[in-house]
């Protein structure tokens, strides 16, 4: 014979309460599992949408502008320059050797204003982007031909300095920038290389491509053959630029083209 307590434990009402608790436990378990899944998805989305280190570096250098003060540029870089060199003109080059690139700031003799900014990509995965009129110029992506016909060009394939540079002066529709130069260089510390270009430079017509910036005459139109003849001009359509120099001045000067390797004294 059941006692009063046993009868109550086995009553229909008690069974209903038991089923309700089990249902509640299942719901709570399912809710906890759902929260865990949602938390995992949020974490994955956060990780996927986070900027990678190289993207953060690209965003950083995209903030540099000619006309900024040296203090402001240093604040953007959040670091002191690694190398500095005073030039014969009295201007000074400040150079940063970063993981993916090297940055050059040409500063006036009073050490106040940034006259030009030079960005030299050492690695192909480094792709900062800059406005160029209605389009954009992206290092390691935009080929020479897309920038247009230059007013000056020069190139050199030496032991410690190998580069090819095209100068575009007095450009319209570029906010805060008047003249630019685009180029490619041997990094000596990454995976950019002048080897494909140097073959074209060696086979260029005599006198077509000066080997010093000072020899390039902006008043003389560039010979079409220099830009289109094979193999000297073929690489312009397929070779992406890896170096970019910007200034607010009407013309670029020789001071703005210092070999990053030389400024660093080969200490790369």
Any overview of this molecule?
The chain is elongated, with a radius of gyration of 31 Å. It has helices at residues 4-9, 12-49, 53-61, 70-77, 144-147, 195-202, 224-228, 235-238, 260-263; strands spanning 83-86, 92-97, 101-107, 114-121, 129-132, 135-138, 152-157, 162-168, 179-185, 243-247. A hairpin with a 3-residue loop joins strand 2 and strand 3 (101-107). It is of the alpha+beta class. The strands form 2 sheets. An 8-stranded antiparallel β-sheet has the order 1-2-3-4-10-9-8-7, covered by helices on one side. Strands 5-6 form a two-stranded antiparallel sheet. The model is unreliable at 42-49 (pLDDT under 50).
Structure in a nutshell:
With 268 residues, the protein is of the alpha+beta class. Helices cover 32% and strands 22% of the residues.
Task: Characterize the biggest β-sheet.
Answer: 8 strands, antiparallel
Q: Structural class given helices, strands, pairing?
A: alpha+beta
Order of helices and strands: HHHHEEEEEEHEEEHHHEH
Count of helices?
Answer: 9
> Strand arrangement, largest sheet?
1-2-3-4-10-9-8-7
Bin the helical content: 25-40%
Rg value: 31 Å
Mean pLDDT: 82
Helix and strand layout, with pairings?
Blueprint: H1 4-9, H2 12-49, H3 53-61, H4 70-77, E1 83-86, E2 92-97, E3 101-107, E4 114-121, E5 129-132, E6 135-138, H5 144-147, E7 152-157, E8 162-168, E9 179-185, H6 195-202, H7 224-228, H8 235-238, E10 243-247, H9 260-263
Antiparallel strand pairs: 1-2, 2-3, 3-4, 4-10, 5-6, 7-8, 8-9, 9-10
């Amino acid at each position: 014979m059941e006692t009063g307590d046993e009868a109550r434990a086995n009553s229909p009402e008690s069974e209903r309460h038991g089923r309700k608790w089990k249902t509640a436990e299942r719901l709570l378990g399912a809710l906890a599992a759902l929260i865990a899944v949602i938390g995992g998805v949020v974490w994955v989305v956060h990780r996927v949408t986070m900027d990678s280190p190289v993207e953060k570096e690209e965003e950083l250098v995209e903030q540099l502008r000619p006309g900024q003060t040296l203090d402001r540029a240093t604040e953007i870089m959040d670091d002191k320059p690694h190398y500095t060199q005073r030039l014969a003109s009295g201007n000074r080059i400040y150079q940063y050797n970063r993981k993916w690139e090297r940055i050059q700031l040409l500063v006036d003799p009073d050490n106040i204003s940034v006259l030009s900014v030079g960005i030299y990509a050492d690695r192909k995965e480094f792709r900062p982007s800059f406005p160029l009129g209605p389009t954009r110029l992206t290092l390691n992506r935009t080929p020479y031909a897309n920038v247009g016909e230059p007013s000056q060009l020069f190139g050199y394939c030496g032991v410690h300095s190998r580069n090819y540079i095209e100068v575009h002066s007095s450009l319209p529709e570029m906010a805060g920038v008047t003249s630019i130069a685009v180029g490619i260089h041997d990094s000596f510390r990454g995976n950019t290389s002048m080897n494909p270009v140097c073959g074209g430079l060696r086979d260029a017509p005599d006198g077509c491509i000066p080997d010093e910036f000072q020899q390039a005459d902006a008043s003389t139109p560039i010979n079409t053959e220099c830009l289109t003849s094979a193999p000297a001009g073929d690489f312009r359509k397929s070779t992406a630029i890896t170096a970019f120099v910007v200034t607010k001045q009407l013309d670029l000067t020789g001071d703005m083209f210092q070999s990053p390797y030389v400024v660093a004294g080969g200490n790369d």
